[in-house]
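User: Protein folding is very new to me. Would you mind checking the protein record under this note? It all follows right here:
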Amino acid sequence: MLSVPASNHLFGIYQWALPIEIGSYMSRIGKVASEPVELLLAIDDTAGQEVVGFLLYSPVPTHRDACGVNYMAVKQNRRRKGVGSELIRRLVVQYPHAELTCAVKKVPFYESLGFQVLDAHNTQVVMNTRSASTTGLMAVLDVSALYESSDAKAIHSRLVQRWGLKAMMQAEKQLERHVGQLARQANAFVGQRLALKSD
C-alpha cells in the first residue's frame, strides 16, 4: 500500500516483509473456514509448468458471490500479455462481487475488467465490480506486528549501520511525505471520478 520507492533506505524492510505478508495469507488456505483464503495460479504449460502469476483473495463467508483481492502479481517478463487480466476474469466468474484496492495508475487496467471506483483508502483507490462494497465481512490479517518483530528490527539495525541514523531518520520522513502525497493523490482522483459520475 505504501509503494515504498527503491531509492528510500527503508525499502529493504518492506521488500523483506512483502513475501512474509503473502505467506501469512497463503498459510491459511483451507485452514480457517470462517476466514477463507484462496489462490489462483497462472501456469505456463510450455515452460515446464512455470508459475507466471498468482491472485490471492479472501472470499466473504456470509456472501457466497463476494470476495476481496489481497495480492496479485505477474512475473515481469510476462506482464502485458494478458496474464493478470485472465486471473481477474476467472476470479470474477467465481466471485462476481469482487473488491480490491490499487494505486491510481492501475485504475484503467481494472476498469477495463469491469471494476468501478468506489472510494479512497489510505494511498489506494477502492474498486469493485458492483456499485457498492459487500455488506459481509472479509477477514484481513493485521501484519503490523511483523514490522515490530526481531527480524524487522535486525534489518533496520543493518540499514542504520549501512546508511547512518540521520539518513534513516530522513528516509522515514521522506516515506511519510511520500505516503501523504499518495493519499492526497488517491483522494483527489476519487473525488474527481465520483463528481464526474454524479453529473
